[in-house]
Amino acid sequence: MTITPFAYIGAALAEIAGCYSFWAWRRLGKSPLWIVPGMVLLALFAWLLTLGWLWAVEGLRPDPWDATGAVICLVGATVILFGPRAA
Fold first, then answer.
1. pLDDT tens per residue, range 52-61
2. Dist. CA 7–CA 9, nearest whole Å
3. CA-to-CA distance for 22 and 16, rounded, in angstroms?
4. What would the 3-class secondary structure string for the chain be?
5. CA angle (81, 9, 62) in 5-degree steps
6. In the chain, where are the structural domains located?
7. Which of 56, 60, 75, 81 pairs with 66 at a CA distance of 20 to 30 A?
8. Percent of the chain residues topping a pLDDT of 70
9. What pLDDT was estimated at residue 1?
10. What is the per-residue burial (b if ≥16 Cβ within 10 Å, else e) of 2-11?
């Protein structure tokens, strides 16, 4: 049995719970202490997602499309963060 489905399911649950804790703090007026489990859960999300990807990739051969996708994501994030804003 492979670990990949369990890693992805765990990652999805950790992401939802981590994002909810930030949302609850910001929108529902919960204590700022809700940020702490949110950060832990989002770190767990990233780790589980990476774990699932490592198990899913056969032989861990680098794929040029991975690098291309990463560059596209970074360019998009740069546009979102540093693009001009309407006045």
1. 776 666 555 6
2. 6
3. 10
4. CCCHHHHHHHHHHHHHHHHHHHHHHHHCCCCHHHHHHHHHHHHHHHHHHHHHHHHHCCCCCCCHHHHHHHHHHHHHHHHHHHCCCCC
5. 65
6. 4-61
7. 81
8. 84
9. 53
10. eeeeebbebb
